[in-house]
Amino acid sequence: MPRSYSSIRLEMEKIENSLHIRAYVKMRELSLSFYTFKENHQMLKQHLNANDDMDYQLQFEYKPLRWQYHPLQQETYRLLLNFVASAMALVEHTRNIVRDTYSNCQFQREYQNKISQEMKDAPVNKFIQDLRSHILHNKFPFVGIQFHHQRISSLGDSENLCSTKIRLTFSRDGLLKWDKWTKPAREYLDSQGDLIFIDVLIDEYYSLIESFHLWLNKRQQEMHESEYSWLLDQWEELYKELDDAILAKRFD
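Structure (tokenized):
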């Protein structure tokens, strides 16, 4: 016997409150957090590596007075804040989702082992976490600008055509003046040269986080594959029934 709209909705609500869909929803929430982090990394990287784009360079042709920030620096600070904030949001969201979904499960121990082995004391990981604290609770670290000019052709005795490469950097010694770096973050700084190229730094950190989340996503798919398949099948059938009930006006 065909069911009414109300009975179908009641069954859908039961499924929505089931463990199957809670795990699915948590995965979707985490994918949103990773997407935000990924896009902020990409935007910052594009800004840092737009060295060959003359139109992009011309946006920053303004030469400020000595006590003013260059527009290149201003844009870097804006994008850098977005990057480190989304990085730490992803850390917190991941931790909360694993705790809420897998509390007292074998996977929680597997997850903690993975964190301990690959993430907890990774110098670049701790450096980015501390950099976020530096920016939010202290100040923006100074961003240096390196302009590399290279002659690419000669147009006569007095006129040359040059290309310009721009690199944005932190000063290692300038960063070390802050006294709140954790031991792994200080180790990261000690391992660097006088200048830390920001594009290299963010790519190193992104690779570490991407690798971890690829593992996490793969493990979740493995653990919940049958549940997700069941959920999608049930949802498709219920929506078909719901459409039929609406067309037939079976609302009671």
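The beta strands are 143-154, 160-171, 195-197. The mean pLDDT is 85.
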